[in-house]
Design a protein that fits this description.
The chain is built from six helices and two strands. The protein is mainly α. The longest helix is centred in the last third of the chain and has 17 residues, at about 85-100.
């Protein structure tokens, strides 16, 4: 089960469900493996400017740092068989979880002049 409050992201690939959780150690190792920072990789994913090789390397680094053992070549075959879109979507969420901290992402998406639905702004008129 995925704990989104802790920033976990899950995706299924080749009949296996991978649950990824960003932590400082995992992110540092992933950045070393992919040769760039997670923010840049997230931007590349969102703009669809990632190569197949980068996608596999990034997905493999994320999966390996989450405690799963799968060969990079096997993961690549699973990605091709299932389609890259599912993996790209999960990795974008992983980058967002790192950037915004799990459920905090929703707070960051709320415009400054808007209150989240179901709450009222407290102003001097309301008090």
């Amino acid at each position: 089960m995925t704990n989104t409050a802790r920033g976990e992201v899950a995706f299924e690939l080749g009949g296996e469900t991978y649950v990824l959780r960003p932590s400082f150690g995992a992110v540092a190792e992933i950045e070393d493996a992919i040769g760039t920072n997670l923010f840049e990789m997230g931007r590349k994913l969102e703009r669809a400017e990632i190569t197949a090789r980068e996608l596999v390397k990034f997905a493999h680094a994320c999966v390996a740092q989450s405690g799963y053992t799968v060969a990079e070549a096997e993961l690549a075959e699973r990605i091709v068989a299932q389609g890259a879109f599912n993996v790209v979507a999960a990795l974008v969420k992983f980058c967002q979880s790192y950037a915004f901290g799990g459920h905090e992402k929703k707070k960051a998406e709320t415009a400054p002049d808007q209150e989240p639905s179901g709450t009222a702004a407290t102003t001097s008129e309301n008090t």
